Amino acid sequence: MTTSLIKVAQYALFMDDLKLVVVEDFLRSNPVLANVQKPDTFDPRTLAVAASLIELFALRSDQQPPEWTKEIGAMTRPFFIQGDMMTSGWLKEMYLTESPEPLRKRNIFASANYLLAV
After folding, report:
1. How big is the chain by its Cα radius of gyration, in Å?
2. Nearest to 12 by CA among 115, 85, 112, 102
3. For 60-110, how does the pLDDT look when each residue is reduced to its tens digit (9 = 90+)?
């Protein structure tokens, strides 16, 4: 199985329970993250999630992200990557303040340790 970045982003975007095995396969197939190509889509939400995730993976593995991520903007509305059930009360506040910077800068929010086990 070889997982593409667009597939990883779509799993996260559509909350199909982004499985660690999918992320692990993507990272194993792409050891140099700077070489990962921009996903072939015009969907700005998918691109925002893809750019955020590849930057998160690069940050955590002490690598440079691909250059194309610099041209990808933020989501127009806040998106809580771990589901709507997390978007109220203290969890919402925690995600808004503690979300990893690569996600937060694109108006995407998750727990501070989102995908940290990868």
Report:
1. 13
2. 115
3. 999 999 999 999 999 999 998 866 555 568 888 888 899 999 999 999 998
